[in-house]
Amino acid sequence: MVKCCLCQKKIKVTSFGWKEGNNALPLKDGRCCDLCNSTKVIPARIKKLPFWNRYEWDLIDDEEFEK
Ligand SMILES: [Zn+2]
């Protein structure tokens, strides 16, 4: 079970079996639920866009690597 690192609620498994939630960066280095993602993380990313663009690509590469 994965807990949201922002609101501490349990992250629900999606219809396609993904249970890790969303990436909470740049707010926190952890996983967050859909609600926090859309209300907190995405607005924060928009503010930090130049930084986030570069970081997101690094992160996607890492996750692909682990599969
Ligand atoms: Zn949450």
Overall description:
The chain is mainly alpha-helical. The protein has one domain. Helix content is 48%, strand content 6%. The protein is built from 2 helices and 2 strands, in the order ββαα. It has helices at 34-47, 49-66, and strands at residues 22-23, 31-32. A two-stranded antiparallel ribbon has the order 1-2. Zinc ion binds next to helix 1.
What are the salient characteristics of this protein?
67 residues; mainly alpha; binds zinc ion
Strand order of the largest sheet: 1-2
Q: Find the count of extended strands (DSSP E, 2+ residues).
A: 2
* Average of pLDDT: 82
Ligands bound, unique: zinc ion
Which H/E pattern describes the elements? Answer: EEHH
Q: Compute the CA-based radius of gyration.
A: 12 Å
- Report the biggest beta sheet as strand number plus sense, adding barrel if it closes: 2 strands, antiparallel
Instruction: Give the termini distance in whole angstroms.
Output: 19 Å
The assigned structural class equals mainly alpha
